[in-house]
Specification:
The protein is of the alpha+beta class. The protein has 2 helices and 6 strands, in the order ααββββββ.
């Protein structure tokens, strides 16, 4: 809505038409200096990799506690609301014990996103 108010577009549909037109010009018509004045489309190649329509579900270790990240990027861990990442909203993360008692790692796939220290008032990063 802010985009509509700032630009004077009458509707999302009009805005989408304008963006589609701009994208067409930018990718298919406009010359680019780095490409010897050729448009981007002249260099495009479809990937040879096959991509699945849907990714397989995430699998975590058997002993992991798995929680779903809420819309605002938070999880409820032992009555504490912990911010993980808005980018992970709807995804599942694993809760794993760290080396110290009362400290837990929050893991997405294989990457530790953050640590939660139940011995302290604040989260560790």
């Amino acid at each position: 809505r802010e985009l509509l108010e700032r630009t004077g577009y009458a509707s999302f549909e009009q805005c989408q038409r304008e963006m589609d037109h701009w994208r067409h010009d930018y990718n298919e018509i406009r010359p680019h200096q780095a490409l010897d004045q050729h448009p981007l489309l002249s260099r495009y190649q479809a990937s040879a990799r096959a991509y699945p329509e849907q990714l397989p579900p995430l699998e975590y270790d058997e002993g992991d506690r798995v929680l779903k990240v809420k819309k605002k990027g938070q999880i409820d861990l032992g009555g504490r609301i912990i911010f993980v990442s808005e980018g992970l909203a709807g995804q599942h993360v694993a809760i794993r014990s760290a080396e110290r008692d009362g400290v837990f790692n929050i893991v997405f796939i294989y990457k530790t996103i953050c640590q939660v220290d139940f011995n302290a008032k604040e989260n560790l990063s």
